[in-house]
Amino acid sequence: HYMAIDKTLADAVAVFTNINGFSDQDKRNIAKGAALIVPHIPTMTDEFYKQLMAEPLTAEYLEGRVDHLKKTHVQWLEALFVGQYDTAFYESQLRIGTTHVTAKIPPLFVAASMSYLRAAFPRIIEQEFKGGVGEESAGAIAGAILKTLDLCQFLIDYAYEQGRLSRLSTATGLSRPLLENLISLKGK
Fold it and tell me: Cβ(54)–Cβ(75) under 8 Å?
């Protein structure tokens, strides 16, 4: 079952985007770079999956599913450039996180994957914007994309956290509110 954005998470997203500075200008910058960046996504995805397949720990999660996963990955990355960063977008990221939790994909793999993307996008932008749009625009576009990836990771990590709390609640018989209260206790 997939999570929906509740008030607590909506408030957390608002704080997150306020702190990381994700703005309407960032949304415009992403749209500005989309036409040049999106065509690189399939190649970036191929290179990314070569990396994943070269790592024995991640390769075992991909066996027999690489083509399907590549297609899903391309769709996810292309959706980052559509410009809709609303409740539906946030819920989509939560579904991705929940899917990863359900498939028992370790959070390490998600963090490493996001790190890969945070390095790959600036390289593409540098390549595409050489001698074209100014360095200032290229930097603003890269920054906006990185902020978006950070937001995605925050939401995916949230799904992992909620999954762990649910498993802990089931295993211990403790209610979710009690677990939340125990976690928030300050040590003496």
Answer: no
Radius of gyration, CA atoms only, the chain = 18
Residues near 113 by Cβ (< 8 Å), separated by ≥ 6?
A: 48, 52
Separation of alpha carbons 186 and 178, rounded Å: 14
Q: Which residue has the tokens 């607590």?
A: 8
- Residue 154's nearest CA partner among 144, 162, 165 is 162
Burial class from Cβ neighbours inside 10 Å (0-12, 13-18, 19+) for residue 177 reads exposed
Strand ranges (E), the chain: none
Question: How many structural domains does the chain have?
Answer: 1
Yes or no: say if 145 and 33 are a contact pair by the CB < 8 Å rule: yes
Whole-number Å distance between alpha carbons of 144 and 127: 17
Residue 133's domain spans which residues? 7-184
Instruction: Report the percent of the chain where pLDDT is more than 70.
Output: 93
pTM over cut 0.85: yes
163 located within any domain: yes
Q: Which two three-digit tokens encode residue 149?
A: 């990836």
Asked whether 108 and 140 are in contact (CB, 8 A), the reply is no
| CATH number, domain with residue 12 | 1.10.490.10
What rounded mean pLDDT belongs to the chain?
90
Contact 147, 21 (CB under 8 A): yes
